[in-house]
Design goal:
Length: 674
């Protein structure tokens, strides 16, 4: 197995942690008689030669020895080594070039050169090996007809359900990789999707057909799939994976313990949803079936899959949200916590679940604040979700939390969602802002959410506390800039309602690094262009982001900023897309001529979706003059996908909120235009 291993100059090779001198020891560890040592060695190889999917020169050097290990009948746990080889040899989803692409090509070639070993392992006595091998056959054996024959043979002979599932998954992969040989694989998948095969295998086959041959799906797909799901769940053991089983403390083992209690079922339904893609009516009906399952694990999986639908696709989802809200009454902590987490990310769209959230908040005061071993307390999920939904019933509870001994730092971020209902919270918020020590380590975490809340409430009585922060922050304070800018933007929001005492402070800031932000606030308070125009023009010669902020304020001045127009026009050629958008909006608002600005905004809209809310805000300010770009807004409203839709983005992001705001703004601009 290790012939020639000492002839490799491992010390000159590299992996994720530097020198690859430790790799021979890890490879030898894979052949150990000690199961903990084997798993530790596999864990080490993943972290070193295949860290986060990367490939190094040491990875390429490992391939022959890994192939020899899986070929040996004396080595236990060969399934994990096969999976590692599949990962090493697989094509990258990223566009690698240069040295990275060459290394990955060499690694793939090395695995393909030894692909005959996978043929021998297809009928191995170890079912875990047989389960890992089909994917390797499809990826690395460059004889499609032979691969299909092997898969067909194994499907006929195999009796282990998990191996049969792996074979089904590999048939779908085969269809995608070898479309010219797909007919036989599709026949096998179609057969597996019907009786007498077991429910789980039929679901797996349906998922693969949905991905590669939707015309072969049954017309009553949702009814069939929900029925199969419930049949499978009724037969599934209620024991969670890993409970009561001995384990080591390697990374690979810890990851296994974090998987869903029904990982296989979760994967089956995810595959089916992915295959259905934009067939949203069927996906919604399928989710309704999942969320009304008698099995709590199925419902939990349904909650998370509904989150993916919400994040990627627009549409009326009130029925699904109501069903997720119904899970809050469950005694299953995993199900309840998953439902709360998803509702937190929906903001206004969580309104259909507000009654259920209120019931949970009312009955469980212990969930109002989440106390952590490290760091400050945080607002509890149920209360945060209720407040983010805009439901006024959250306000009295937040008032009680504000009166308590442990006020979460993030409470202020939800206050603005409650509108007028949050007005009674202002005195407590002002008091807390006044208690923030300007020179403390946690000033940013405490002050910025409070400033956000008081800004949203338009609470001009908070001006003394705001000015205290502006004047009192030491230069050495961590994230001082963010605190000062949040305070100045609060004064800007107060506008002409702010007392006269703020003017000298803002004028003083015109001589500082906060000049552009202060100029925007001073313009809102005084409306005197002559006081801010020279400062803003000077800021255009500065770097990002001050130049971008200055351009935004100059746009608000409109024609009064005409003297700065030449400098702003030069920004249209800036490298940063946000700077170009700010400049284009300013040029249009100052000159009234969209000939230069409109193409810049149209390009940003198309190429940089995250600029669309800024562009829409500009069109709202332009009024009828922005009509040349209204076609973008109409197309946006006709689109079904969210503008930042990405299944890979974490659910904790504000993508849904941002997209809903964009849609609302598009409607408002078009409505105002008649």
């Amino acid at each position: 197995m290790f012939t020639g291993i000492d002839e490799v100059d491992w010390a000159s090779l590299r992996h994720a942690d530097g020198s690859a001198a430790d790799v021979p020891g890890l490879l030898r560890g894979l052949a150990s008689a000690d199961p903990v040592e084997r798993e530790t060695a596999l864990d080490g190889l993943y972290g070193a030669v295949h860290h986060q999917g990367d490939v190094y020169d040491s990875t390429v050097a490992c391939v022959p020895f890994l192939l020899a290990l899986v070929a040996s009948g004396e080595v236990a746990d060969r399934a994990g080594i096969v999976e590692l080889l599949v990962g090493i040899g697989a094509e990258s989803a990223d566009r690698e070039d240069g040295a990275e692409a060459r290394l990955r090509a060499q690694a793939g070639a090395g695995v393909r050169a030894g692909a005959e070993v996978f043929v021998r392992l297809a009928g191995d006595a170890d079912p875990a090996v047989r389960r890992a091998v089909p994917a390797a056959l499809v990826r690395f054996l460059d004889e499609p007809a032979r691969v299909l024959g092997l898969l067909r043979e194994r499907c006929a002979l195999e009796r282990d359900d998990r191996v049969l599932h792996a074979l089904t998954e590999s048939l779908g992969l085969f269809v995608r990789r070898h479309p010219g040989h797909a007919a036989g694989a599709l026949e096998l998948l179609t057969a597996q999707s019907a009786a007498p095969y077991d429910a789980g295998l039929r679901l797996a086959a349906l998922g693969r057909l949905a991905e590669c041959a939707p015309d072969r799906l049954p017309p009553d797909l949702v009814t069939v799939a929900v029925g199969l799901l419930r049949e499978r769940s009724a037969r599934r053991s209620g024991r969670r994976d890993g409970v009561g089983c001995p384990h080591s403390d390697t990374l690979a083992d810890r990851l296994r313990r974090l998987r869903p209690s029904d990982e296989e079922g979760s994967q089956l339904l995810r595959t089916l949803h992915r295959g259905l893609g934009d067939r949203l009516a069927e996906r919604t009906a399928l989710l309704e079936g999942q969320l009304t399952s008698p099995d709590a694990v199925d419902r939990c999986n349904g909650v998370w899959m509904a989150a993916g639908l919400f994040r990627e696709w627009r549409g009326d989802r009130r029925g699904l949200v109501t069903l997720i809200g119904a899970q809050l009454a469950s005694d299953d902590d995993w199900l309840r916590d998953a439902s709360v987490s998803v509702l937190e990310g929906l903001f206004d769209l969580a309104a259909p679940a507000a009654d259920d959230l209120t019931a949970l908040v009312t009955s469980r005061p212990d969930l109002w604040v989440r106390r952590r071993e490290r760091g400050a307390p945080a607002l509890g999920g149920p209360l945060k979700a209720l407040a983010r939904s805009g439901d006024p019933r959250a306000a009295p509870v937040l008032e009680q939390v504000l009166a308590g001994p442990d006020v979460p730092d993030d409470l202020g971020h939800v206050v603005g969602r409650l509108g007028p209902a949050a007005a009674p919270l202002a005195p407590a918020l002002r008091r807390l802002l006044g208690e923030v020590a300007p020179d403390s380590a946690g000033t940013f975490e405490r002050a910025v959410p409070l400033l956000s809340a008081l800004t949203a409430l338009g609470d001009t009585e908070a001006v003394p506390q705001v000015l205290r922060l502006v004047r009192g922050l030491p230069e050495s304070l961590r994230r001082r800039d963010a605190v000062v800018e949040a305070a100045v933007r609060a004064l800007e929001e107060f506008g002409s309602a702010a007392p006269a005492r703020v003017v000298p402070v803002l004028r003083e800031l015109l001589e500082s690094e906060y000049a552009a932000v202060a100029a925007g606030a001073l313009w809102s308070v005084e409306g005197d262009a002559s006081a801010v125009l020279p400062v803003l023009t000077g800021e255009l010669a500065d770097g990002m982001p001050r130049r971008r902020v200055a351009a935004g304020v100059l746009g608000r001045l409109g024609p009064k900023a005409g003297g700065a127009l030449p400098e702003v026009r030069r920004m249209l050629l800036a490298e940063d897309p946000w700077e170009r958008v700010s400049a284009a909006c300013a040029v249009w608002r100052i000159s009234g001529d969209g000939e230069l600005a409109a193409p810049v905004l149209r390009t940003a809209w198309r190429e940089r979706p995250y600029t669309r809310r800024a562009v829409t805000a500009c069109l709202a300010a332009l009024g009828p003059a922005g009509a040349p770009l209204h076609d973008l807004l109409r197309a946006e409203l006709a689109a079904r996908r969210r503008h930042l839709a990405s299944p890979s983005r974490g659910y904790g992001s504000h993508d849904v909120l941002d997209d809903e705001r964009l849609v609302r703004a598009c409607r408002e601009v078009l409505a105002a235009a008649g």
